Structures are given as structure tokens and as C-alpha cells.
Amino acid sequence: MTQLPAVEELLQRARTVRGESAALQQEISAARFAEEAATRRWIPEPELVAGTKSSNVAGGDVGSVISIHATIPLFDRGQPERALARARMAQAEAQAAVFESAVVAQVFSRRAMVVERRDIAERYRESVAGAIELERIARVSYDAGERGILELLDAYRSGAAVRQRQAVLDASVRQAEIDLEFVTGWEMP
Q: Are 107 and 5 in contact (CB under 8 A)?
């Protein structure tokens, strides 16, 4: 069996591979930019318009027009927009903290599950060797005429049950490894 990486290595891998963390950081920076934009709302925004104007009165004439417009926010200081941006940033920061806690908990629990299931499967593997030996002894005893067919079949049934249980344990180990791979992005070699 392959050696499991350390928890810190798995955590680092999970943080870089999973996209939720990067998306939440982008949401935080977008909210920060929205707040900065809302704080500059009190600055007048001048607008320069240039063009041509034609007239049909008195023979028609074409002339140039230049105008300057400026919006001066006397009462609107962008307070609702700033509050909304701060709320978006606080929500994104809280979601990032929850995501980080969830990743840490998932990595710790999934790694512990893999270690535990590997240990159980390995300890049970010793009983498989004992069941194979009992089958061999029952077969030799049956061939020598010392035991009956029912005892031989009972030994085979017991051996099959032990091997089936070992297969179930091996499958549970692999399922735990797949869950760990899913959470961290770490692939079994």
C-alpha cells in the first residue's frame, strides 16, 4: 500500500486544487473594489460633449457645439452602495472561513478513515491465511478418509466467508481512499 501524505501536505493540495477558495477570494476583492467605487461617488463626473448642429431656419446652417455637463452629488454620497459592498465582503469572508474549516475537517476525517480501514483490513488479512490453511487441512483429512464431506464443505464455506469479508474490507479501504482523493485532489500512485 502506498504511504499517505502528511495532513499538512493534503491540506495544501486541497487548498490549491479546489476552486471554491479562489472563487471566494475573487468575490472578496470584487466587493472591495465596489466599496472603493462607492466612496468616490461624491466626486463630480464631468462630461464633455462635442458635435455638429444643423438648422433649417433661415436657409439652414451647420455649426459646432461644445458642452460640458457635470453631475454634482449633493445628497447622494453612495452610502447604500458602500453598505452593500461591505455586506458582500463580510459574507464572502465568512463563506471563505467556513470553507476553510470544512476542508480541514474533511481532510482530517478522510485521512483518519483511510488509516483506520487500512489497519482493519491488514489485521483481518491474517485470518484469511488461517482459513486457507484450515481448508488445506480439511482437504488432506478428507482425502485420507479421516473426515466426512460435510466437514470439508464446512471448511470451504468458512474460507469463502473469510475471503468475502476481506474483499469487502478491501473495497471499503479503496472507497475511503477515493473519498480522500476527492476532497484533496491527491491521486493514489
A: no
Task: Give the pLDDT confidence of 128-154 residue by residue, as tens digits.
Answer: 888 888 899 999 999 999 989 999 999
Q: What is the pTM of this model?
A: 0.66
Residue 93: CB partners within 8 Å, gap ≥ 6?
28
**What letters, b where the CB count within 10 A reaches 16 and e where it falls short, cover 95-119?**
ebeebbeebeebbeebbebbeebbe
Q: Which band of pLDDT confidence, cut at 50, 70 and 90, is reported for residue 189?
A: low
Domain 18-52+63-184, CATH among 2.30.30.110, 3.40.50.720, 1.20.1600.10, 3.40.50.2300: 1.20.1600.10
Residue 148 has which C-alpha cell? 466426512
- Indicate whether 81 pLDDT > 80: yes
Residue type, 185: G
Query: At how many degrees (to 10) do helices 7-17 and 79-143 cross?
Result: 130
